[in-house]
Structure formats: C-alpha cells, structure tokens
Design goal:
- The chain is of the alpha/beta class.
- The protein has one domain (7-186, 215-241): NAD(P)-binding Rossmann-like Domain (Rossmann fold, 3-Layer(aba) Sandwich), CATH 3.40.50.720.
- Helix content is 49%, strand content 14%.
- A seven-stranded parallel β-sheet has the order 3-2-1-4-5-6-7, sandwiched between helices.
- The protein is globular and about 50 Å long.
- The two termini are 33 Å apart.
- The structure holds nicotinamide-adenine-dinucleotide.
Length: 249
Amino acid sequence: MKLKDRVALITGGASGIGRGIALAMAKEGAKVVIVDLNDEAGEKTLAELKEFSDALYIHKDISVRENLSELVQEVVEHFGELNILVNNAHVSRQKPFMETTPEDVALSFNTGYFATFYLMQEAYEELKKSNGKVINFASGAGINGQPTQAAYASAKEAIRGLTRVVANEWGPDGINVNIISPLALTSGIEIWSKHDPEQYNKMVNGIPLRYVGDPEQDIGRVAVFLASEDSKYITGQTIMVDGGTTKIY
Ligand SMILES: NC(=O)c1ccc[n+]([C@@H]2O[C@H](COP(=O)([O-])OP(=O)(O)OC[C@H]3O[C@@H](n4cnc5c(N)ncnc54)[C@H](O)[C@@H]3O)[C@@H](O)[C@H]2O)c1
C-alpha cells in the first residue's frame, strides 16, 4: 500500500490513461478524486474505484479557469486534504499547421497547458503541507514535432517548460513535480487500430517493446511510483513511458 490514505486528484480520470492511473492509485490505498465531463464514464469508473478505496467523481470542465479553485476546494472539503495532483486531461485537433485556427490553439492550451498551470497554483497550499506530488503530461508528438500536431505539440512542450520551473521553485517545499510522456491503448487508439490496421501495425512495429502500453499496468504503475516516496529524489523530469519509442538525452 504505497499510497495509503493519500488523496489524489486526477483530471480526465473517467477514461483512458486517467482511469488507469486512478485504478492503480486506488489499489495502492489512495483516496481518488476523478474530474471529467463524461458522466457516464465517470460514474462507471467511480464504481470500479470504490471496490478498492474511497473515491469521488466531480463533473467539471477543467478548461474554465474559475472551475479550478472550486475543484480544489471540493476535494479538500470532501477528503480534508490534497496530496497528489495528476494533470492528465488534454484535448486537441490534428491539422496541418497552416490550417490550425486560434480556436484549435485555444482548445489545446485551455484543456492542457492552462488547466495544468492554474491547478498547480490552486493546489500549492495543500501540496506543501504534505510533500505533495504533481504529475503532468507530455507527448512524443511534442518532443518529436509530429506533423499535424502544432496546437497539441506546442502546449505539451509548454507544459514541460512550466514543469521544470515549478519543480525548481517547489523543491525547497518538498514537492516533486514530474512528467509522464505515455503511449497507451485508449479507446481513441483502439478505434483507429480497427479503422486502419496497417498503419496501427506499422506503429506497433516501431515500438522497441512491440506493444502499445496498458493504461493501468504500464502507465498507472509509473504514476504510483511518481506519487510515492520511492521517487522522492526525482523532480523536474520527463519520464518516457512509451515502450522505448522516444529517447530523450
Ligand atoms: N494515449 C496515448 O497514447 C497518449 C500519448 C501521448 C500523450 N498522451 C497524453 O496522456 C493524457 C491522457 O491521454 P488519453 O489518451 O487517456 O486521453 P483520452 O482522450 O482518452 O481521455 C481524456 C479524458 O479527459 C476528459 N476530458 C476532456 N476534456 C475535459 C475537460 N475540459 N474537463 C474535464 N475532463 C475532460 C475526457 O472526457 C476523457 O475522459 C493526455 O494528456 C494526452 O495528451 C496520451
């Protein structure tokens, strides 16, 4: 029980990687709050989480600035504290750079970068009381500059820059701030694999470990490590959890 009684807030925790992290943390004893817009998935995941630990589902749009202070307040009112913040949710549209609009940029930055930025600010007072842990999310698409991902890649790399600054500022407070850059089989990738099996197989053959990660077993377990005291001497780092696909030096 590496996270016994720690309180974790996971954005986009109803499905995909967020759900995998929520389950992995609940199985290690964390009290888990998932925030999402998809109520059906949120309620379903909440019922799964409750088999292992105390949990709460909150419906909120994290791209709206005013919602974020309310969100932290609700978590603290319900569980009394907040020890682990996982800034996982991020929405974007894939388009060639010259077709990318201000709306596309706003969608990606509001759900990804600004939610991460303001939630860290809102959670700070709570995190510093308890050697808090923050886990933010990057992407190989940002690190490698994947074509058609201008809005997404730039928000993801902005999150990496921000994470390094905050890790340096909050180190003296005993707060660890790290990044996971994942590759995992979520429903979006599953649909794509059925749509275009040839491209999917090509992608899998480009992964040194030859499979697309599992949200709970492969990504969730690393998130547990980063949220636990086992990783207390790691901060400001990007951890590639993508089967070896992207190497950073
Ligand atoms: N899946 C991958 O292989 C992969 C690869 C690289 C990076 N990532 C990153 O990992 C993270 C998780 O990715 P995923 O594939 O699980 O995503 P996903 O799209 O499968 O899930 C995102 C969740 O966030 C929720 N959400 C969306 N907008 C929201 C909002 N405004 N407010 C609250 N909740 C909202 C969705 O309802 C959904 O439950 C993201 O940061 C993503 O960029 C994923």
